[in-house]
Amino acid sequence: MKPMVQQAQEAAAYIGKRSGHRPVIGLVLGSGLGVLAEEIRHADVIPYEEIPHFPVSTVQGHAGQLVLGELEGQTVVAMQGRFHYYEGYGLDQVTFPIRVMKDLGVDRLIVTNAAGGINLDFGAGDLMLIQDHINLMFNNPLFGPNAPEWGVRFPDMSDAYDPSYRQLARRVAEDQNVSLREGVYVGLTGPTYETPAEIRMLRKLGGDAVGMSTVPEVIAARHAGIRVLGISCISNLAAGILDQPLSHDEVMETAEQVKPRFIRLVKGIIKDIRSV
Ligand code: R1P
Fold first, then answer.
1. Where does the chain bind phosphate (predicted)?
2. Number of domains in the chain
3. How high is the pLDDT of residue 206?
């Protein structure tokens, strides 16, 4: 097998041939949130299976295609569908698209996800600005020999979620009169949802929301020197808070309701993200 660095270069070269857009902003769209990509103008859509070395999406609500084009005057590349560890991919594969984005010229990334609310003040349908994360996947996409072409051996994670971007997001939310929560995202492997006891533990550890993605992508992005903004859509309150079972259908339904607010907020952020 070819080294991942070369695989990413080949994937980026293929995308560069398929599209004339030269994106500088990357978007990872979470469960049910892929609809944002429909706002992209002059879009070139490339199904993942056509891109050399790219994994394919297997989860409902993740279309499995890259969308390149213009959004709010910026050239973007959006992942309409991401990869998760629980799908059986290694974290190097989960984060492969981030490497490809970097090779395409992306230096800013907006990651989004659907997450369960741990913080008892949160409600379903809230949007949460990710302040920081806790990696409870017991793995790291940087395990193994370091690729110096991609980044340093020991990346700093103290400001993984860019403070200036967070400030921008707060300002945009205020201008739009949208309530924006803020908190710590905890990344677990899934695919089971958490137990009530696990949720109590995560709350004690300082988590506000929980999900099965985002953390590896953000680690890879920071390794590559990409600045990151993260937004969680609180799709439900996590196990044990309300007396009801959790389901992916509910996650998708909430994403559907949040859609207009989510789209407006992210577009507002994209409009100004190059100026901060
Ligand atoms: C569970 O309903 C799924 O929704 C979230 C979880 O991580 C899990 O994959 O998806 P995203 O994180 O991709 O939004």
1. 31, 62, 82-84, 114, 213
2. 1
3. 98
Q: Which of 274, 251, 267, 269 is nearest to 30 (CA)?
A: 251
**Closest C-alpha to ligand 1, atom 8:** 212
- Preceding amide of 155 cis, omega within 30: no
Interval 17-70: pLDDT, tens: 999 999 999 999 998 889 999 999 999 999 999 999 999 888 777 789 999 999
pTM for this prediction: 0.96
Query: CATH code at 45?
Result: 3.40.50.1580
Domain that holds residue 152: 4-275
Q: Per residue in 76-126, pLDDT tens?
A: 999 999 999 999 999 999 999 999 999 999 999 999 999 999 999 999 999
Compute CA 119 distance to the chain's CA centroid, rounded to the nearest angstrom. Answer: 20
Rg (CA), the chain: 17
pLDDT at 245: 79
